[in-house]
Design a protein that fits this description.
This protein has no helices and nine strands. The protein is an all-beta fold. Strand 3 and strand 4 form a beta hairpin. The chain starts with a strand and ends in an 11-residue tail after the last strand.
Length: about 110
């Protein structure tokens, strides 16, 4: 029996992005790619609840790279980019919480 299975029903791939005070971050760019061949699973911005979500149907378990970034605007801070390797599983999919830290070098007030 193979260690991989083909999913009959799609599983959820969900990434929630927050700051260090547990406040959700809207409009953070979230991308999820298969590490094996760089196939894109998810590439979108978080909603008002800080969530980026899709479904995945394919062989599992499968290793993915998750990337998250949030650039600054006039009235919002810039955050340090985030990247990690995770696994989409046949029973749980992927449900990942990411905490972004403010980029203290970029957000320094002018002298």
């Amino acid at each position: 029996m193979s260690e991989y299975s083909n999913i009959q029903e799609p599983v959820t791939v969900k990434v929630t992005v927050m700051d260090i005070e547990d406040a959700v971050i809207q409009n953070a760019k979230v991308a999820v790619f298969l590490t094996s061949d760089r196939t894109e699973v998810l590439n979108t911005e978080t909603d008002a609840s800080g969530i980026a979500e899709t479904t995945y149907s394919g062989p599992t378990p499968v290793e993915v790279e998750v990337r998250c970034r949030k650039a600054s605007t006039k009235d919002s801070p810039r955050y340090v980019n985030y990247s990690c390797v995770e696994t989409i599983r046949d029973d749980t999919g992927l449900d990942l919480n990411i905490i972004l830290a403010e980029d203290t070098n970029f957000n320094k007030p002018p002298h």
